[in-house]
Structures are given as structure tokens and as C-alpha cells.
Specification:
Shape: globular
Helix content: 25-40%
Distance between the termini: 24 Å
Strand content: 15-25%
Number of strands: 7
Structural class: alpha/beta
Number of helices: 6
Radius of gyration: 15 Å
């Protein structure tokens, strides 16, 4: 059994923002938000599909570890059983990378999960949200502070949203590969 955790903020005003891309992709892969139920103790919306529990924490991003801690402490879920899907401001919009065992990379939601699990050894699917330079075609990380906040809480442009929609099947394939073959093979195949 794997627990696919989509990071984001719970209020509908954040739907479709760059920072909520992990949560939005999890909803899409699980067949839509309507298939989710409130899990009171985990403080999350959850849906079941075969050997996956889809999890969308109902805490704000920087408190995502609270939901993961519930599964670890109350249901005995090990770090390797979590697959965390989230936004990465160091990757260009629409690029997807698989990783495991790394630090938070400045992502507060991931930092809180690392703290809650007491481990960095959980698979991650990072979805790029960085703007791409018109001149070089490379990702440009926004400046810190207010420009970063505006960027991550901003909406995708139409062109960017199209790229995000196109990666959903790729994320689904990555999840399946992690389940069947392990995270190392997923990294080799999809990175």
C-alpha cells in the first residue's frame, strides 16, 4: 500500500495556483475532488484506489507533516510507503523529477514532512513551476521574499496550465513504477 500525498493549501482560493500543483494533480489522478472524503483524524481529504490511498492534507502547506505523522504514528506507515507530490521552483514549468532521501530544498511542506517522519527516505515527485527565460529557455528561480510569494501563489498562464495538464499521465506512470519496481528504477526511467 502506498500513500500518495499531494501538497498544497486547503482553501479553494488556492486551487490552480503554482504552489498547489501537487494537491491539484493528486485530485486529478484520483478522479476528481468529489471522490474524496474528510478523514477527521488525519486532517485530510482521502480517496482509495486499489493499493493507493490518495491524501490531500487539509492543513496549510507548512503544516503538511501533521497529516503524515498521523499515518506514521497511528497506522504504522513507513516513510518508504509515502509518495509526496509537490511544486519545485527550481524546475521549469511542467518538468517532473523523481527523488528520494534528499533535503527539503527550501520547501516548507517537505521540511515539515521530514520533521514529522524523522526521515528523508520517502519518494518524491517534484513538479516544476519556475518561469522559463525567453532568451535562454532555462528555468529562472524567482527572487526571495515577496516576488517568490507572488510567484508560487499565482495562477499558471494558459500555456503553463497546458504543460501541467500534459504531465498528469507521466506522474501516474511514475507512481505505478515506484509501486511495482521501486523508486530507484523510477528515477532511472523518468529523470
Amino acid at each position: 500500500m502506498h500513500y500518495v500525498v499531494g501538497l498544497g493549501n486547503p482553501e479553494t482560493k488556492y486551487d490552480g495556483t503554482r504552489h498547489n500543483v501537487g494537491r491539484d494533480v493528486v485530485f486529478a489522478l484520483a478522479g476528481g475532488r468529489d471522490g474524496f472524503n474528510k478523514h477527521q483524524y488525519a486532517n485530510a481529504l482521502t480517496a482509495h484506489g486499489g493499493d493507493i490511498e490518495w491524501v490531500a492534507p487539509e492543513t496549510y502547506m507548512n503544516k503538511s507533516g501533521e497529516t503524515v505523522r498521523f499515518y506514521k504514528d497511528k497506522q504504522g506507515v513507513s516513510p518508504e510507503q509515502f509518495i509526496v507530490v509537490y511544486d519545485d521552483v527550481d524546475l521549469p514549468v511542467g518538468e517532473v523529477k523523481v527523488s528520494v532521501g534528499k533535503g527539503a530544498g527550501g520547501h516548507n511542506g517537505v521540511a515539515d514532512i521530514i520533521n514529522a517522519l524523522g526521515s528523508k527516505d520517502f519518494p518524491r515527485i517534484r513538479i516544476g513551476i519556475a518561469p522559463v527565460s525567453f532568451w535562454t529557455g532555462k528555468a529562472r528561480r524567482p527572487e526571495g521574499g515577496a516576488p517568490m510569494t507572488r510567484h508560487v501563489l499565482g495562477m499558471f498562464s494558459g500555456k503553463e496550465q497546458k504543460k501541467i495538464n500534459e504531465i498528469e499521465s507521466r506522474v501516474c506512470n511514475i507512481i505505478h513504477t515506484i509501486q511495482t519496481d521501486g523508486v530507484q528504477i523510477a528515477m532511472n526511467q523518468f529523470n
